[in-house]
Amino acid sequence: MSASSKVVIVTGAARGIGQAICERLSEDGWHVVCADIAEQENQDTAALVRGDPVTCDVGNEDSVEALVRLVAEKYGRLDGIVSNAGINRFEPLSEWTLAHWDRIIATNLTASFLLARASEKLLRSTKGAMVLMTSTRAHMSEPSTFAYSASKGGIIALTHSLAMSLRPDVRVNCIAPGWIDTGKYAIEPGDHEQHLVGRVGRPQDIAAATAFLLDGEQSGFITGQEIVVDGGMTKKMIYV
Ligand SMILES: NC(=O)c1ccc[n+]([C@@H]2O[C@H](COP(=O)([O-])OP(=O)(O)OC[C@H]3O[C@@H](n4cnc5c(N)ncnc54)[C@H](O)[C@@H]3O)[C@@H](O)[C@H]2O)c1
Known about the structure:
The protein is of the alpha/beta class. It has a single domain, classed as Rossmann fold. The chain contains eight helices and seven strands. It has helices at 16-27, 39-49, 61-75, 98-126, 146-166, 189-193, 203-214, 216-219, and strands at residues 7-11, 31-36, 52-55, 80-83, 129-133, 171-177, 226-229. The protein has a seven-stranded parallel beta sheet, sandwiched between helices. The longest helix has 29 residues, at 98-126. The structure holds nicotinamide-adenine-dinucleotide.
């Protein structure tokens, strides 16, 4: 890491969107602290971007505080946080336990509160920025997405609450990805065609939006906002 490098924590770094964000930010000159619960895959991402791997459960208070403490001790600065780690569970209502609900809320929503609280001093001193990951599922549903939708709706509200509370030092925004192909599902031609832009999203689409929102030179007048990156799908009127 060069002396002038800005330091960013990316959670959910081990794969998918988080890994693409690590790659993009590293290309842009950030020093990336890769945080994930999946130890081996996270080490692979960190090696790829010459960053630091930190095994962390973002829904756990002690784990998040240890992550931020490590950054403070090692680098003495923190310029950005990308709170991206997320999990889902799509099952009929009767098959949900309170433990299922709590785990998703902790990972997808409480984590961003814990990261903000642990990092406030560091982020204020660098005039840093936070990017939280919501979803278009905060606004629209398929059946059985209960805790996922609720957690993502909560992220939009937490974003403006944090932006108001950390002003004027720290900007806080969230990104709502639509369908992003991370290789988990086979994509059919019709999946691409239904999007206004003619294709399903790529992790790099979200990485580009993240890089923009972290860069105060480019996005210094944007805070408290939700940026939807979904190929236009939420603007499509559908009567069934
Ligand atoms: N892929 C999409 O289409 C899509 C759409 C909308 C929103 N999102 C959101 O984008 C984010 C990334 O999605 P993805 O598709 O890359 O997911 P993914 O499942 O490929 O990766 C999620 C990462 O989070 C990590 N993780 C899970 N629980 C964790 C915990 N408790 N602590 C630390 N790390 C943990 C996983 O190990 C994994 O590396 C999520 O917040 C997701 O809700 C994704």
